[in-house]
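Slides due. Your pick:
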Amino acid sequence: MKKKKYLLPKIAVGAMATFMLFVAVDGVAIARSLTDLNRQRQEVRDEISGLRDLLNEAQAERRDTEAEILMLDIELMEAGNELFLVQESLAYTEERLADAEAALVQAEIDREERFDVLRGRLRFMHQNGNLSYIDLLLGSQNLTDFLNNREHFRRIVEHDNAMVTELIELEEQIAATRDEIAEQVVVLEIQTQNLEDAMASLEATLLEREIRLMELGYNESHAASMLASAEATEREVQSHIVAAEAEANRIRAEQRALQTRTGNVRVQSDAQMAWPVGRAAGVNSDYGWRQRPIGRGTEFHEGIDMTAPFNTPILASEDGVVTFSGWMGGYGNTIIVDHGGGISTLYAHNTANMVSVGQWVYRGQQIARAGSTGHSTGSHLHFEVRINGRHTDPAPFVGWQR
């Protein structure tokens, strides 16, 4: 956000020179000078509100990002632990695979050796079949001994044959085990790769969040600095408003004293307010003594009644702060706007108020809709101008010519 440069009006920069100007002008001109300060104060307050929202958003996002970083750290740690276990299992399985490969090689060697022995016996028997029988016969003491020797020879051959068969089966078993272990190695390698990819992704996301956290920290610090500057500006503007209002009240008191001495109690205006119903509508009832519209006798009418059909937009006559918005006895729905310098305007009998207390309103802004609430005989606007809380003739302030 670009930092706004607040410029104080001359009343804040050169107070003494501006106070000299106050002596030469009337209450509405003073109100206009104070309105500039009040408007600026509201602008500063609006920016302060925006900066606070910005700061709160940055702080909330920073907290969310910190929580996300914590979760990413936990996920990364869990993935690291899982990767360690898979790598340990892979190393162990690879050792088993190596052992199985070595066992298979040894089984192949044993099978070939045993097969060579069997082949040698069979070859000898084939080449020396008759001779071996004669030798076996001559070496025998009797027929029984001969038969026993021949059976013993046959069993040796069968044993060699069975040994070869057993070795072949063992070799097949070792080969099957080796293949199974090899498949496990492939599965573990895939798991390892997946975990490494997941950790790389987590680390990349974590890096992004850490960079974002640094950005948020800068934004938060910058917003806090701007907020402190704006609050200091608000305090400065407020101090000038207080000083200006005090001086305006002092000058107003001097003017009232002068008016009392000269007998001239009418307040004139050289800075006309806006007509509060948007156009120069007619006036049903003027300021001053009149016959009561409800009941008998006379009464002093403290404002002027302007013609305004039901729901006609009611506009603020000048910039200022809403000091009252609600029901006010016979006035019905009423709004009072403070314009500074002791000047305020009142808008009564509204069918609906559209602003609230403390709200800054601008000249010409719709603040209500015309109606007939309270002690009223028909839809219209009752409009008053008050100086230091006392009613005065509104006609000069809005340019009404009788």
In short: Confidence is low (pLDDT under 50) at residues 1-30, 263-271. The first helix runs from residue 10 to 13.
